[in-house]
Amino acid sequence: MDPAAKLRFDSPLLRVHDDGRVERFYGTETTPPGFDAATGVTSKDVVIDDATGVFARLYLPDLPSTEHKKLPILVYFHGGGLVLDSAASPMYHRYLNSIVSKASIIAVSVNYRLAPEHPLPAAYDDSWTALSWAASGADPWLSEHGDTARIFIAGDSGGANIVHNMVIMAGDQNGLSSGALLQGAILLHPMFGGKQPVDGEAMETREIMEKLWPLICPHGTEGLDDPRLNPMAHGAPSLQNMACRKLLVCSAERDHARPRAAAYYQAVKESGWLGGVVGVQGGGACVLPPQAGVR
Q: How many other CB atoms sit within 10 Å of the CB of residue 130?
């Protein structure tokens, strides 16, 4: 790198130059869809929006030819702090193959556009488009084998942030279309932030977010108290309106996002939301491989 070059953001995983150039050192490797011999799961990529190029990778478990029961649908949003990774990542591909095989579900892994090239609300818009598409049963795999009355959404890190915003958006729009039901939402070590620290939050975590969030959301006016990043901020949409029946919030013991996840879980419990919420804290660093420097 030219020593004279100016940087807007620099981490071991992502570098953003002052002229807008983006260098990613993690999360750029991809793997194609297809049949996975280890799990018996078959996957394919389907373009959802020709204008944006947003696609989803669909996963179908090995189904007996005589079995015609409808399966729950999991819509998954990958992590990477809204700036890294993709639905075609080898890590997420293995992860979804395993989940689909063990849980006997259909999965829709969403490849939303990344910041800073595509700042917010692009990722949220793409994710809502993909969720609505899945709920409509637009693909034959979904219409023939999926039960749109049993839709679950999940994500890790930045993807978990998307999950929260999807249940808020669904609440604002009185649920999903076509009679589809959002039964549950799973947030794995979610990416949240805020101007005021919460108990146990490391200063380094807040400093990284102070630099990263303006790249993700350059047109925001609330900074780290943007309700999309801080669900507990003043003026944020009421957590009572989340449009799912069950919520699972997971964090790891040594995960630097754990304090925010715990605060979110507590806020949901105290909000008066009528659904069921469970918080789980496990050992180790995080549920999926850590993405230090960006969440």
A: 25
